[in-house]
Structures are given as C-alpha cells and as structure tokens.
Write a structure and sequence with these properties.
The N and C termini lie far apart (90 Å). By secondary structure, the chain is of the alpha+beta class. A 4-stranded mixed sheet has the order 3-2-5-6. Helix 15 crosses helix 16. 45% of the residues lie in helices and 7% in strands. Among the domains are: 150 residues, no CATH class; 72 residues, Homeodomain-like (Arc Repressor Mutant, subunit A). The radius of gyration is 32 Å and the shape is extended.
Length: 476
C-alpha cells in the first residue's frame, strides 16, 4: 500500500461557547432564564444580580466603577432603543404592584388547605363510632380518588381488609355497607359515591322535600343520565312522563349539582406568566415595549473587579476568565431581549388588524415571513416565540399564537385558521339552541362569506376549541 500526503481545503461551522450560550438563553422562558441566571451567579463571583437599591451603582464591563446614573434612566446594558417621537410606554396598566406600597410586594404563597382525606378524617374523629367502625370508614376514605369517588368495589375492599386479620377478623360484608353510609353522610355531600348517578342522587337527598321536580330529578339521576347526556329529549320526556317545561326545570336542578365533590380540595400550584413585552397604541401606531420586570439586572461584581484592576500582572487567570464569561453573559442577555423586541414588533406590524378588530381579523403568518423581516433564521424565530408572552389590550398571548396556516378564499386570497376558528365560534354562539348548526351547515355559511372550508376541517377546528357536536349542543 502506497502512502501519500494530500492537502484538502474544507469549511466547517463551529459554534463558539458564546454563541452556544446565546442560543440557549434565547430559547428559555422568563422563569427558566431567571433560574439559569441565579445558578450562574452562584458559580461566577464576577457576576451579581442588582436589586433596586444598588441598581445604579455598578461597574462597567471593563471592571471599573461607573458613576451613579440618574434613577430615571434605564441601565445602559438593558436600555431599549426607542424613537424620540414615540411616547414612552406606560407599564402601570400591566403591573400588579401598587405604586404606593412600600412593603415587600412579592406575591405571597397561600398556605395549602387540607386534602380531601384530611378533611374527611377530621370529621370522622367527632362521630361516635367504635374503633372498628371508624377504621372501616377510614379504609373507605383511603379508597377515594381526587374527585371523591370510591374507585374500588366494596367486594375488592373487603378482600383487601380480610388479609389484615389482626385489625378486621371475621369481616362481614354488611359492615362495609354501614361504613359506606357513614362516609356518604360526611361533607362534601356526594363524597363516597361509586358513580355519577349516585353522587347526584346523594346531593338531591339533602335538598328540601318541597323542591320543585325533586322526585323526577332523583329518578333521572339514578336511571336516565345516559339519555340526558345524549340530549335525547323525546325518550327522556317519555321515560319521565313530563313535558318540555318540567324537563327544563329538572335539567336546571341537575346542572346545579356538583359532579366532583372532592374537586375543591385538589391543591394545584398556580403558575403566573410574566409577559416579556407589552403592546400599546401610541399616536395611531401599535408599538411593542419590553417589560422591565421581566429583565434581570446583571452587573459585574465591584469587589472582584477591583481585585483584577489592581493585580493585572499577577496570577489571577481564573478571575480573568470568569470576568470574560460575565461580559459574555451580560451581552447575550441584552441581545436576547433585543431580539425578542424586534420579533415582537415585526409580529405587531403584520397583525395590527388583530389588535384593532380581534381574532376575526387575524392574517396568515409563518415563521419565514418574520425571519425575512428581521434578518434571522427561521429556527431563531421559533426559539424566540416559544414560551415568550405578549400583553395586549385584548389579553395575554404567547408569541406563537400569532402564527397560523392559511385557507383559500373565493376571491383568490387567504384567511388565517385563527380567524376561521373565531368565525366558527361566532356562528355557534349565534345559533338557535333548539336547532344547532351541523358542521356541514357551518361550512356552507363560511362559503357564503367567501371562505372555502371543508366539513371535516370545520369539525377539526370545532374540536380544537372544545365545542361539542350539534347533537350535544341541542338545548333540552
């Protein structure tokens, strides 16, 4: 085999650590960015997060102390570019913080309330029962799901308890029946039910005897819920021997009950969304502005920067490297928000009719159009618009909300899928409850407005908005 030496030229794209960090920061949500920066600040002594008191007494990127700037100005590393003829955005409409509140206004986490199990056991403690009966009721409580329903049959529970010979020797089936009755008399009413009909019936039992339609409602809950769910008015009236007026009254009574009695004890964490930008109309123009509350206040640590300034000739390589990393991070965070602002403004410019008239005026928009407008790659636009939120006079929206596919119109133009969904919702809201519109009828009505939408497409959009089909929307 003959060996030879060849020279070959090639190009290869290499992502520098700074570029990798920039891409990573761009795709993070506001909450994830805050967590990421807190972690980096803990690892890099050259970085610190400013609080409001020390925000204007930092040092510059060179490591020298800056003169305190006026409190009315934004920090130079996060000052957004604005045109001089535009009015300053007023963020008071979007902030939950009171301007005259001198105390710590950070949201307080409410104390978690008792769980359904704890609430039921606290009531059980005051019921005069034997130790054995109380243990059986407690066993049934442990078999409830989060909605308050018994998820196992009494036979299955009896088999499980029968294995615990020390606690429940010679367990009789009747004992569990009695324990279930004790459970079903606890608050909230309807707890311990084995199915929806029993849950509703338990709640109807505690209503005053003179409640209009009470007996018929109990009959319906126990025997004919399927007909009610299917809106089969004819069979329902025939089975209950009632007319339309009585059926309407009974249905109203049933709908006033709680199908999930244990639902209010499900403690779920509330997640608050901090908008990255806000949209406001200024002198006839819709403008985007960064939310200062969503922007972290980063700066170089003055103490370590002074050490570097005094010991430039000494072996402080580690601090010098961390100083460079700190500069990169500050620059990348600034670039992140600048990019979000540019993309948001480009979206606003193309969807201004939405801000004026609502969803029906939404125009088709794809990532490529915004990418070309701001001179970025589509993948970058995708990162920018994911988990970034825009506060508008019409509500809070994720940036991705403003992108949508298009549907052809008779005039040769296109309509946004978001606008079509809004039109479908309008048609459904205006329909006759006695004769709701079918998907085919909605398709025909849209066609009369020049929008060509197939029946199956209407069905897909309707289901995405969680609108029931026509037979389920029929009023009884």
């Amino acid at each position: 085999m003959k060996h030879n030496l060849q020279l070959k030229l090639s190009q290869q794209l290499t992502l520098t650590p700074q570029l990798q960090q920039s891409i990573r920061l761009l795709q993070l949500s506001t909450l994830e960015l805050s967590q990421e920066l807190e972690q980096i600040v803990q690892e890099n002594p050259l970085l610190e997060l400013e609080d409001e008191e020390t925000r204007y007494s930092g040092v510059n990127e060179a490591g020298t102390q800056e003169a305190p700037s006026q409190p009315t100005e934004e920090p130079p590393e996060f000052k957004a570019e604005t045109d001089s003829h535009h009015e300053e955005m007023d963020w008071t409409d979007y902030s939950a913080k009171s301007s005259d509140d001198d105390d710590d206004s950070s949201p307080q986490t409410p104390a978690a309330g008792p769980s359904l199990r704890q609430y039921l056991l606290s009531q059980l403690a005051f019921i005069p029962l034997s130790e054995r009966d109380r243990a059986l009721v407690a066993a049934l409580i442990d078999a409830l799901n989060d909605d308050g329903y018994l998820i196992y049959t009494l036979e299955e529970i009896a088999e499980t308890l029968a294995s615990e010979r020390e606690l429940f020797p010679d367990l009789e089936p009747e004992e569990l029946d009695i324990a279930l009755q004790h459970l079903q008399h606890l608050d909230p009413t309807g707890v311990g039910a084995r199915h929806l009909g029993e849950c509703l019936s338990l709640q109807l039992q505690v209503l005053p005897p003179d409640t209009p339609g009470l007996a018929i409602a109990r009959n319906l809950a126990e025997n004919h819920l399927g007909l009610l769910a299917n809106r089969d008015v004819g069979k329902l009236k025939k089975a209950l021997h009632i007319d339309d007026v009585e059926l309407h009254a009974v249905r109203t009574l049933i709908l006033g009950l709680n199908p999930k009695p244990g639902g209010r004890f499900n403690n779920q964490d509330t997640h608050y969304v901090v908008p990255d930008v806000a949209i406001k109309k200024v002198r006839g123009l819709w403008l985007a502005s960064l939310n200062p509350d969503a922007m972290p206040k980063l700066r170089i640590n003055r103490v370590y920067a002074d050490i570097l300034a005094r010991n430039r000739d000494n072996a402080v390589g580690q601090l010098s490297s961390q100083l460079q990393e700190a500069k990169w991070l500050i620059k990348n965070v600034q670039q992140r928000f600048d990019t979000i602002l540019r993309v948001s403004q480009a979206i606003v410019d193309r969807q201004r009719h939405f801000f004026e008239h609502g969803e029906v005026a939404m125009r088709p928009l794809v990532l490529r159009e915004i990418a070309e407008a701001v001179g970025m790659h589509e993948s970058t636009i995708s990162r920018v618009t994911t988990q970034k939120y825009m506060m508008t006079p019409r509500g809070l929206y994720e940036l991705k909300y403003f992108f949508g596919s298009h549907v052809a119109t008779d005039a040769g133009g296109t309509a946004s899928s978001t606008a079509i969904r809004a039109l479908i919702k309008q048609l459904v809201n205006a329909e006759n409850p006695q004769k709701p519109l079918s998907d085919g009828q909605i398709s025909d009505l849209l066609g009369q407005q020049g929008i060509v939408v197939a029946r199956r497409t209407v069905a897909k959009y309707r289901e995405s908005m969680q609108i029931s089909p026509a037979n389920m929307r029929r009023s009884v």
